[in-house]
Amino acid sequence: MANSILRIGTRDSPLAVWQATQVQQLLHKADIESQLIYIKSEGDTNTITPLYALGVQGIFTKTLDAALLNNRIDIAVHSLKDVPVQMAEGIIQAAVLKRGSYKDIFVYKDENDLKKLGFINNKWCSVNEDQFTIATSSIRRIAQWLHRYPNSIIENLRGNVNTRLKKLYTHNWTGAIFAAAGLERINLRPESTVDLDWMLPAPAQGAIAIVCRSEDENTFGNCRRFNDNETAFCVKIERDFLKALMGGCSTPISALAVIKNNCMHFNGSILSVDGREKIEIEKTVDINEAANVGFDAGEGILSKGAGKIIEQIRNASK
Questions:
Q1: Number of neighbours of residue 118 by Cβ within 10 angstroms
Q2: Is the torsion defined by CA of 152, 153, 154, 155 positive or negative?
Q3: CA neighbor of 176 nearest in space, from 145, 200, 207, 130
Q4: Among 72, 110, 247, 313, which is most buried by a count of CB atoms within 10 Å?
């Protein structure tokens, strides 16, 4: 390693800093000295334009990638769901930490609205046809919400989690959708939240990745010891599904791989942007035969007509 102190690149949002600090603590326990280097991404500096309108894969990671390749930092810490399935040349995934919650959650302001949405006796029941105003910038969340509540009005919600929560309470919205891990990790999850257990997460949601230069074998080895094998296996399958559909964070593609009873259980879906069309796939295989489940599921969903939805999304973004 060129530097005696390992330089950890991170965005400067509270959540990103929390994630990078977890890595720093792991390094400290391994007697490796490190420091945090704060770098703003394009996704942080432009907090007005909806993410799907920016249409740039790796919008939260490419600035850190450049710093890594230019030797300004030695590793970068990312939310893995933000990382393009095809990493920049010269960069390699060194480790994936044990996964946090992969769930999406709904933050509401009025319990009566929650009942109208169909959340009764602590579970999601009927679907109301009323018009609700929901805030999120995720095209995946928008599509899944509109599939269930087609009369809803969607408001763009950008910024770090602190900023988004403040916006929710100062606007006349029914509620907003967040990643559970994002709020829980920095102790910001309000009491007025419920899990959206009917909403399938983004591939690798809740997972933290450490990346380094592919030629830096020493740093790779130092970080590899923190890799959680089960998490890494599951999120690879989810990202393989995404790769098979040639999707990114600006496409409404969802995937979840979970290991139970020595089997890999996989669920995946793709929706049209307006939520009207939805194609799903589910697979359960023995853990020893699960290596290609993501790609197989991708081929399976394409055979069900997903290609038409993908083409529609591509044409709409031109």
A1: 15
A2: negative
A3: 145
A4: 247
Amino acid, single-letter form, for residue 91: I
Q: β-strands 153-155, 133-135: how paired?
A: parallel
Q: What is the pTM of this model?
A: 0.91
Residue bearing the bigger pLDDT, 2 or 207: 207
The residue type of 303 is S
Maximal C-alpha separation, the chain: 61
pLDDT score for 44: 42
Residue 70 CB burial class (10 angstroms; 0-12, 13-18, ≥19): exposed
> What rounded mean pLDDT belongs to the chain?
91
Report the half-sphere exposure of 192 (CA within 13 A, side-chain side). Answer: 15
What's the whole-number mean pLDDT along residues 87-107?
97
φ, ψ (nearest 5 deg) of residue 209:
-115, 145
Instruction: Give the model confidence (pLDDT) of 29-61 as tens digits.
Output: 999 999 999 997 654 444 444 444 434 456 678
pLDDT of residue 3: 56
Q: The tokens of 275 are what? A: 């939520």
Catalytic residue list contains 82: yes
Closest CA to 166 of 19, 158, 44, 114: 158
Of these residues, 44, 65, 74, 82, which one is catalytic?
A: 82
How does pLDDT run across 134-154, given as a tens digit for each residue? 999 999 999 999 999 999 999
Is residue 145 within 8 A of residue 134, CB to CB? The reply is yes
| Tokens, residue 117 | 């949405």
Please, which pLDDT band fits residue 126 given cuts at 50, 70 and 90?
confident
User: Contact 53/249 with Cβ under 8 angstroms?
Assistant: no
Beta pairing, strands 123-124 & 119-120: antiparallel
pLDDT recorded at residue 249: 58
- Select from 113, 95, 49 the least CA-distant residue to 207: 95
Strand-pairing partners, residue 164, are none
Which whole-number Å values give the CA distances from 210 to 9, 132, 223, 229, 258, in the listed order? 10, 39, 7, 14, 21
